[in-house]
Amino acid sequence: MSNGYQIVVLGSVVPDPLQTLEPAQTPQGPGLKNELMLPHVLDPWAAHALYEAASLAAKAPGSKVTLVALGPKAKLQQVMMAVGQKVPFDLVALDGPAGGFTDPHEVAAALAAAVRALPGLDRSRLLLFGGWESASRGAGVTLQLVGERLEITDQFQGVDQLTPGPDGSFEVLERVEGGKHQVSWCGGAPAVLGWATGGLGEPRNNPQIGMANMRGVMPALQKAPPAQVGTGGVEFVSVAVPKALRETRIVKDMSPDEIARELVEWIGQD
Questions:
Q1: What pLDDT does 175 receive?
Q2: Which is nearest to 210 in space by CA: 94, 80, 92, 91?
Q3: How far apart are CA 64 and CA 5, in angstroms?
Q4: CA 53 to CA 127: how far, in whole Å?
Q5: 230-243 burial, b for 16+ CB within 10 Å, e for fewer?
Q6: Which residues pair with 40 in a beta bridge?
Q7: Do residues 140 and 156 make contact, with C-beta atoms less than 8 angstroms apart?
Q8: pLDDT for 143-170, tens place per residue?
Q9: What would you measure as the largest C-alpha separation in the chain, in angstroms?
Q10: Which residue from 144, 139, 162 is spatially nearest to 154, judged by alpha carbons?
């Protein structure tokens, strides 16, 4: 593609998944116990999308990566100190809640407005990246809603690979059942791509990239506008962590036929 892509990655912060997360009712609504004290990370699904965006931008000269993040400003600042050393990007920050109880329609409205307000937005070069799922909300709908609000109808979810062509078109591999991929071809931007894990590892920290990113990250955080995002009028009567369930039976010297029979009986119970 001669002018490169304008890649916008939607992603925010989530509590570190390795922490014990306990739902609780807060004065601001449902949330997590001691949420502000929990260490946060960039949502792992969004992180995959960001790394893939940076890789694609490096292959397509003239491309630019912008990360649009809606979350508590203080937590965004902490996380960006680490993420900013991974890959080059511009940050657009919105100050608001990022928990799993926020309404996806309200979140999508705020994100879509932020994308529309990007200076020099060119829909003919626009690729909207994000995670097809989220560590805070497993519904997997926010990215699709943002795409709909931006009137982008070419949407791909569970993406593991994007291969650009010389004419602006690209091939997409989406996950389907059985460990297989569906191969699609798209004529070009604009498009929405919800990434699965992709094929890239986490980049190593690069202090030079970090210093370059910080020149834009800090001003973006300082002028982050508040986002009016809530629960969409939904009242959560009760929330709880799913109970741990483990039904393990250790049996020695069991024949393959017996194992197969038990598996068939177990599957037949569903």
A1: 93
A2: 80
A3: 6
A4: 9
A5: ebeeeeeeeeeeee
A6: 15
A7: no
A8: 999 999 999 999 999 999 999 988 888 9
A9: 68
A10: 144
How far is 11 from 70, CA to CA, in rounded Å?
7
Bridge pairing between strands 23-26 and 126-131: unpaired
Buried b (16+ CB within 10 A) or exposed e, 103-121: ebebbbbbbbebbeebeee
Which residue spans within the chain are E strands per DSSP?
A: 6-10, 13-15, 23-26, 29-32, 40-42, 64-71, 90-95, 126-131, 155-164, 170-175, 181-186, 191-195
Q: Can you spell out the DSSP letters for 141-182?
A: -HHHHHHHHTT---EEEEEEEEEE-TTS-EEEEEE-GGG-EE
Q: Residue 222: what residue type?
A: Q
- Respond yes or no on whether the N-terminal peptide bond of residue 44 is cis (omega within 30° of 0): no
pTM (two decimals): 0.85
Tokens representing residue 74 in the block = 């203080």
- pLDDT mean over 10-32: 81
Burial class (CB in 10 A: 0-12, 13-18, 19+), 258: exposed
Side chain identity, residue 5:
Y
Q: What is the pLDDT, as a whole number, of residue 270? A: 62
- The rounded distance, in Å, linking the Cα atoms of 242 and 260 is 30
State the residue for tokens 């699709």. 144
Nearest to 64 by CA among 54, 74, 76, 50: 54
Residue type, 57: A
Q: Closest Cα to residue 5, out of 145, 130, 195, 164?
A: 164
What 3-state class would DSSP assign to 73? Answer: helix
Q: How many beta carbons lie within 10 A of that of residue 195, not counting itself?
A: 29
12 has which bridge partners?
A: none
Q: What is the pLDDT of residues 247-270, one digit of tens each?
A: 788 888 889 999 999 989 988 876
Phi first, then psi: what are they for 37, rounded to 5°?
A: -90, -15
